[in-house]
Amino acid sequence: MNTKNNRIVNLISLKEKVAIVTGAASGMGLATAKLLAEMGAIVTLIDINEKEGSGAAKQIKEEGGEAKFFLCNVTSDAECNKTVESIYKEFGRVDILFNNAGVIRRKNIVELEEEDWDLVVDVNMKSIYLLSRYVIPIMIKGKGGSIINNGSGWGIKGGSNAVAYCAAKGGVVNMTRAMAIDHGKHGIRVNCVCPGDVDTPLLRGEAKQLGVDEDEFMKEAADRPLNRVGNPQDVANAVLFLASDLSSWVTGTVIIVDGGGLA
After folding, report:
1. Distance (Å, rounded) from C-alpha 45 to C-alpha 25?
2. What value, to the nearest 5°, has the Cα angle with vertex 256 and ends 226 and 201?
3. What burial letters (b/e) apply to 141-166, b meaning 16+ CB within 10 Å?
4. In terms of CATH, what superfamily is 3-198+232-252?
5. CB 150 within 8 A of CB 98
């Protein structure tokens, strides 16, 4: 391998870095956890689904990566604190945090119950506050890190029958900018990925919520310039860029990963 290739490998390598991925049992979280592990990171997977989360960590280890699952309700301050403490105690550092956990309720503001509002806002936005609150002091001790928040195209423009989700993801986008301003002096970069429709259990679940045919729903979701629905790997690739030294001067920004949908 020549010197130029070595430089590229070093820029993208995550060797010896410790990453936290929330909502890691499936979808974009799982794809990202696998990719970060493939690039050399020790990946800690956080999810409320113990069976799938444990299975995901086991699969990563079987494929030669380093991973450990932590059961955690990311809307609970006490559980987030305890989980981050456990990770720090075991691994001694946190370099990457992918705040990915998410949930959606496809209802307008009149139909939406308060408990659904609270759930969507807490999982999508409050969880970022809680995890970041406990991870950032660790990153400050380590003199830097990368936080990537999972937003949405609907955090940039509105969408129908998803008022709580749009509100939460809009908050995530501007929260990212505020965090980047506050913690750049600590060497911490904070960025946001905003996916369009990605083929995950969450997306397919929307068809059921709306009471429409799933195949037709997915066909309509593919109506964008690149003529397909995204896959979790598309988003994982963007997260890898933001987690690695390839993006060493990138902070406070939003990367739209949506096949041209917003365009």
Report:
1. 7
2. 75
3. ebeebbbbbbbbbbbbeeeebbbbbb
4. NAD(P)-binding Rossmann-like Domain (3.40.50.720)
5. yes
- Give pLDDT tens digits for 146-177: 999 999 999 999 999 999 999 999 999 999 99
11, containing H or E segment: helix 3-12
CB count, 10 Å around CB of 242?
A: 23
User: Among residues 244, 147, 127, which one has the least CA distance to residue 193?
Assistant: 147
**104 Cα distance to chain centroid:** 15
Helix, coil or strand: residue 261: coil
User: Is 165 one of the catalytic residues?
Assistant: yes
The DSSP annotation for 108-160 comes to -TTT--HHHHHHHHIIIIIHHHHHHHHHHHHHHHTT-EEEEEE--GGGTS--T
Domain ranges, ordered by start, for the chain: 3-198+232-252
For residue 169, give the H/E element and its range. helix 163-183
pLDDT digits (tens, 9 = 90+) for 200-216: 999 999 999 999 999 99
Identify the weakest region by mean pLDDT among 7-11, 162-166, 168-172, 231-235.
7-11
Q: Which two tokens stand for residue 126?
A: 């409050």
Tokens 């919520």: give the residue: 209
The residue ranges of DSSP E strands in the chain, in sequence order, are 18-22, 42-47, 66-71, 96-99, 145-150, 188-195, 254-257
Distance from chain centroid for Cα 210 = 25
Lookup result for tokens 């990605």: 198
